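// run 5 | inverse folding | seed 20
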């Protein structure tokens, strides 16, 4: 086991994370990690990109092309990195994450933030009923089993802007038809986090000391979250809170929308049924998404990890997010075609064929 304190490290040890690698640095979430890390001026940020990738990267990020099917390519790109952040799309091959983890261990990377940015995985009841991302316990165990790398997993709940505008499956907002569906009475609260807050959290974490100086040092360090969840959030809010914010941001009123209510349990079961009966991958995923998102708004309160686990926001010095400001940002994303862009970049060719057939 590595020494716990900086004082016990060999000569030349620098007690900070300076070199960070990101898989998916040009993606929906990864770009915010890259931008915020660069802003600190404390890190060299390297993006592992597929050969031939045309992803736009933040200024100051160094791109290293890799082949995820060639371990030597990955190991070479990860040599000397101190922290690896993995963000992969849902369409990535299931074995890709494992290939990256194994390569990181062979390259000697001490910390990995795995491709899990969702709800409270320590909540066994929730994980047993989570139909979209599942329980990441096997991923964490694989990282620990390397004997080289440790994991730090970001628990951020739902991504606020993304979930608000993508469509009725997510938070009940059908923007195209101006129809709002509240789960139960729409007042159950869950934790949601903005893209920016996720980025700020990673940058703040990796700007801490890596290890305590000695036994008397109780300040937060990167190692404080070694093989643990990092709970962060922007808001603990209900659907009705979001709807009120949307109306303030747009000037709309209840009269502009058709408002409906659906029992959360019934919606969950409907999603499960769709997932199990669907004959195409896209419909299966949409059924799973329907079930997974409404599950966080069950009256059992499983979407609210803030009240039971606490947050790392204060320890990391994160600012308070402004709800209406973030909602206005989501509205701008909607107006600029964010939804169409998401589906065009994340759906597989098979998915697009299925959508065209259904039309």
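// decoded
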């Amino acid at each position: 086991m590595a020494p716990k304190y900086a004082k016990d490290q060999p000569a030349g040890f620098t007690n900070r994370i300076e070199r960070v690698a990101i898989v998916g640095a040009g993606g929906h979430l990864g770009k915010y990690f890259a931008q915020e890390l660069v802003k600190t001026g404390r890190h060299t940020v390297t993006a592992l990109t597929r050969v031939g990738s045309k992803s736009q990267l933040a200024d100051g990020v160094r791109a290293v092309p890799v082949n995820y099917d060639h371990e030597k390519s990955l190991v070479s790109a990860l040599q000397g990195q101190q922290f690896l952040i993995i963000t992969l799309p849902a369409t990535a091959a299931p074995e890709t994450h494992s290939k990256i983890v194994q390569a990181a261990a062979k390259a000697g990377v001490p910390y990995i933030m795995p491709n899990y940015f969702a709800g409270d995985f320590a909540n066994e009841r929730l994980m047993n009923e989570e139909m979209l991302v599942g329980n990441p316990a096997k991923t964490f165990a694989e990282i620990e089993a390397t004997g080289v790398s440790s994991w730090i997993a970001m628990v951020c709940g739902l991504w606020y802007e993304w979930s608000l505008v993508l469509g009725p499956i997510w938070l009940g907002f059908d923007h195209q038809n101006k129809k709002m569906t509240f789960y139960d009475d729409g007042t159950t609260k869950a934790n949601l986090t903005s893209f920016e807050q996720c980025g700020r959290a990673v940058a703040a974490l990796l700007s801490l000391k890596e290890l305590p100086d000695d036994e008397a040092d109780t300040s937060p360090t990167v190692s404080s979250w070694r093989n643990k969840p990092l709970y962060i959030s922007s808001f603990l809010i209900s659907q009705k809170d979001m709807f009120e914010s949307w109306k303030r941001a747009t000037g709309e009123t209840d009269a502009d929308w058709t408002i409906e209510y659906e029992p959360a349990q019934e919606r969950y079961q409907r999603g499960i049924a769709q997932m199990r009966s669907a004959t195409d991958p896209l419909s299966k995923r949409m059924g799973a998404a329907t079930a997974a998102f409404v599950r966080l708004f069950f009256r059992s309160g499983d979407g609210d990890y803030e009240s039971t686990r606490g947050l790392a926001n204060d320890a990391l010095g994160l600012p308070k997010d402004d709800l209406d400001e973030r909602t206005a940002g989501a509205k701008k994303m909607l107006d600029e075609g964010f939804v169409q862009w998401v589906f065009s970049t994340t759906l597989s060719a098979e998915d697009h064929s299925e959508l065209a057939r259904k039309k």
